[in-house]
């Protein structure tokens, strides 16, 4: 969203009646307080602070357990992107919100500008290489690499993490992100429709849109955001005045987020199905991102590597005139999550590493998945169980980004079968491996059998 449009939205929100969130009414038997949470149901790397958290009822249980004589009600508000959540937060209408890294910076900038500062209090889903964002094209598109985007129409949501990936990827390819392409500022669903209709040549978006379109056979990956090797993440932001007035409530939310994270780790298939039910997304797509070896890792810790990446993001938004200077250190506030989890547990999460990439099959009707030592071993299994495989996932041989096995680009290198998310990364591998060549998925299955 461009700055003028964003400002207009925020201004419009400010003139709404300020029936403040985090406040309540007093009755003869006590008080009732409504806590308003803004989330993005289809941005599935925020599920531990949104969709999954809501479906599990974790926050409501934590609020009840406070035992402070207050009756708490939770007002869940679902949005497609982070911008309207920020507008409502700076209008005093939302207490707690979750969004991606670039929107978080806009959240910080707008909060300070409008005198309603916000604070980044935890992390939801992240990928240390940047694999949460992907550029896709139509399945029959002849575009094969970033350089092919010169002069083409590319849909994205300006100011989003996916826009940041697009800008950085184009810059690395020597393409001016402002003049080298025709950028269309569109909501994710609109961009997806535009790609299907042929009115845009490519789409750069965040989860779960690229995986969803690939799963549906409506797109193929052109650029894997993990090629940037720069962390990207989603996080939880809270209004400073709300956090100061009701720290116990914010800490209850963060404990609930931790509970949802533990549930996701312990029951990855069930969690994927819970989110799928709530969002109407295919469970196979949810699992691609949030599974046991999915693209995203989850824990609430504000890891220094993620905060360092956030500081590097500021320059991208400044160049687009979406923010001025942002004091990231002042925006990040880990005191609440430390108290919510306890110092030992928080230190453990700070030191934790994401689970290693793995080849994984989800058998039909199964309550657990099967992992394999290599993509070739997975293909061997799939070739003899074709009618009983619900989904198969393989990590890109270069970036480690998981992708659907039947949507990957396969390379035969001697006896090895190597999967890639995009044709470009496959071609880069071929350039350094004499005799290696691309093959179809059907051929890969035949060789593995």
TrEMBL record:
Q: Which domain of life is it from?
A: Bacteria
Transmembrane spans: none
Tell me the keywords, alphabetical order.
Signal
The answer to whether the entry has keyword Repeat is: no
Q: Which Gene3D superfamilies match?
A: Periplasmic binding protein-like II (3.40.190.10)
Residues spanning the signal sequence: 1-22
Residues of the SsuA/THI5-like domain: 87-271
What the entry lists under SUPFAM superfamilies is as follows:
NosL/MerB-like, Periplasmic binding protein-like II
Please give one Pfam family short name: NMT1
Which InterPro entries does the record cross-reference, listed alphabetically? SsuA/THI5
Q: Which PANTHER family match?
A: ABC TRANSPORTER SUBSTRATE-BINDING PROTEIN (PTHR30024:SF45), ALIPHATIC SULFONATES-BINDING PROTEIN-RELATED (PTHR30024)
Q: Report what the protein is called.
A: Putative nitrate ABC transporter, periplasmic protein
